[in-house]
Known about the structure:
Blueprint: E1 2-9, H1 14-30, E2 34-52, E3 55-68, H2 71-83, E4 87-95, H3 100-103
Antiparallel strand pairs: 1-3, 1-4, 2-3
Helix pairs in contact: 1-2
Amino acid sequence: MLYEIIGIARPGNIAEIKELVLTAGQLVLRNGGVIRDISNWGVFLLPSPISKHQVRHRRGHYFVMRYDAGVQAHAIVRDNLAIDPRILRSTGVKLGNGKLDNLSKFGKIPWRSLE
């Protein structure tokens, strides 16, 4: 199945974001998955402040990872991101039903610039 995870991490060091994505990617690969796309959206204001680990965050560093994996691999990635203290929020969705003709309509992850 094709999955997409959108994560919001604490803003700050870009090396920390790279480490988060590397860890999630390694989990996908170790469980027989294939990474299709990774996008770094950057730091944005959150729609509403998030309190996590006794700190109130108003900004978050957004990233997106799209990958093919089984249900168990997706659950492992989702659960690991949920317990990581550097992640403010993350969510994962299934894109399509795994058939090639349905997956071909999902192209590059679009993101419009506010500039």
